[in-house]
Design a protein that fits this description.
The protein has strands at 15-18, 21-26, 33-39, 49-50, 56-67, 70-73, 77-80, 85-86, 94-100. With 102 residues, it is an all-beta fold. It is globular.
């Protein structure tokens, strides 16, 4: 029998990270961390996001993500390398799906 845990992302509890920035933590397992981030138009993540030796995986679901002067649109898959940091922002608003591996 298949074991599936379904979550309506828009019903997951919202964590306010900073002005115009929210995160929704999603169910995961084995110490992995899955989440959805929404950043409102013209806003930036309020601090540098630091990664450990495993980095971070991000999928831009909608809108645009601006990193280091480059704009990534919906459907962009980004792999942030080990021990890196970044401060994402957006012009039009963005929804991201991300994973931090254990």
């Amino acid at each position: 029998m298949l074991d599936i845990n379904q979550t309506d992302i828009d019903s997951a509890p919202i964590v306010k990270v900073g002005p115009g920035c929210t995160r929704r933590d999603l169910p995961s397992f084995n110490g992995n961390r899955a989440w959805v981030v929404d950043i409102e138009p013209g806003c930036s993540w309020p601090y540098a996001d630091q990664h450990d030796e495993k980095g971070e995986l991000v999928l831009v679901v909608s809108g645009d993500l601006v990193e280091d002067g480059k704009t990534f649109g919906a459907g962009s898959y980004l792999l942030y390398g080990p021990n890196t940091s970044h401060t994402p922002s957006t012009k039009t608003g963005v929804r991201l799906f991300g994973l931090n591996a254990a």
